[in-house]
Amino acid sequence: MNASAEPEARKPLAGGETSAASENHRTTPPHPGYTFTAPWKGARSQRQSSATVMAESPPSRALPGRPLDSVILSRSRSGGSRSPSLASPPANLSRASGSTIWAFAFHTYLWLSIICSVHAAPLKVSGDFETITLSHAGKTEKLELPEEVGVDMDDAILLADQVRAEHRYLLLQVTGPSRRSGNGNGNCGAGVETSIVWLKLTNWKIAELKHRKVESCWTDEGFLEMPKWKDGICKVVFWAPRENNQEFTLTYDSGKPEKGFQLTSKPFN
Question: What residue ranges do the domains of the chain occupy?
Answer without folding.
Answer: 124-267
